[in-house]
Amino acid sequence: MPGICAQIEQKASLDLILAASARIDFHSEFGTQFNPRLSAPDRPGSQTIRGSFGGGFFAPTPFVNALNVGRA
Asked: pLDDT tens digits, the chain, 72 residues: what are they?
């Protein structure tokens, strides 16, 4: 499954970086999928804390697809 991804970062303060990223996947059976993400890693001292929000796509495996989960 081919795809394209990109990320941009902006330094908000000495320790805080804001990042926006996106991924586009081209799936032959499920079409084109767009997955955005926002994140903010913070480094207060020697540790790193990161909060993030984003979407994603998971193509079902043949086993899951054969179960017809969620279909009436």
From this structure: 688 999 999 998 887 889 999 999 888 888 899 999 999 988 778 888 889 999 887 777 777 656 665 655
Annotate 13-56 with DSSP letters as a single string: SSSBEEEEEEEEEEETTTEEEEEEEEEEEE-SSS--EEEEEE--
d(CA 50, CA 39): 7
For the chain, domain boundaries: 3-49
Q: Quote the tokens at residue 59.
A: 């193509």
Cα of 2 vs its chain's centroid, Å: 15
